[in-house]
Amino acid sequence: MQRPPTTVVLACSAVLLLTACAACGGEDKDTERPSTPAGLTAQAGSATSVHVMWEQATDNRAVTGYEVYEKGTRVKSLPAARHMVDIDRLTPGTAYSFTVRARDAAGNLSAAGPAVSVTTPAPAPDDRTAPTRPASLKGRVDGARAVTLAWAPSRDDVGVTSYDIYQEDSRIHSVSGTQTTARVTGLRPGTVYTFTVRARDAAENSSPDSGAVDLTTTSAPGDGPSTAPTALRATARKGTIELSWTPPRTGAPVKEHQLFLNGRPATTIVWGVTPPAGTATYTMTVTDKPGTRYSVKLRAKLPDGKWGDFSAQRTVVVA
After folding, report:
1. Can you spell out the DSSP letters for 8-67?
2. What does each C-alpha distance from 207 to 27, 116, 127, 145, 173 come to in angstroms?
3. pTM to 2 decimal places
4. Between β-strands 95-104 and 63-70, what pairing exists: parallel, antiparallel or unpaired?
5. For residue range 80-135, what is the model confidence (pLDDT) as tens digits?
6. Three-state SS for 196?
């Protein structure tokens, strides 16, 4: 029997391999577009900024980001976890039109959906007076991933343009100056959140923070109880900041807590063999000048050696 030349065999094998790879690649190629982001809103936050917000899109694999357009021109690219953004450096007294498209890993873009129009207000000349502090902030947990906030309106010599909602020290949402409620979504189950609200006018003057409200979202099915310290208090004295809190119930005494200042680890508070029962206290020496602002939160080391959930955050000003 005569065998075909080796080169012919290799050539046939290469053709088969390429054909197989092409077929595999065709099967794996993602050509499906994400769904159109729904619930698009655009709210003027000041004379030069607009807050754009939308609901999460879906995809057959995964949404990897969002593109924000103003009259067809892309102005922002955001990761999939972001469903809102502030568009800054705009022109006062000008009409704008925004759309949002979702993007997946293959680069497929969703349809844009209906555009939302908004007009920035004209700034008041020489307006240097900030609105008053929003009062009586209250909150309600709406399940595992959302909360609703409500507050009393602020006053301003010209007019409140918007209210900004902060989670700890980050602005996460804005609503119109005519609204005194806000629903915040995209939260994590079983997590402690600390919210404050500031009023803002067209000249970008912001009020002082409202009082803080702590809200803990509902735990997801199968999750255990929260491991966050509770009842955290922070009091500024001359040269010190005095802290007190209730350690979490973990089935064993909590011997260590990690203290964070302005979002960064500052120190580990360690007790000996017998940690305090009930309320724990700690006094921190500070050398910063009066008026320095600190954000304070902490978490406990659990019996399995891992760090637990964060407490609510407190803001304190050096005396």
Report:
1. HHHHHHHHHHHHHHHHHHHHH---PPPPPPPS-EEEEEETTEEEEE-PPP--SS-EEEEE
2. 56, 28, 13, 28, 16
3. 0.71
4. antiparallel
5. 988 889 999 999 999 999 999 999 999 999 999 899 999 998 877 788 899 999 99
6. strand
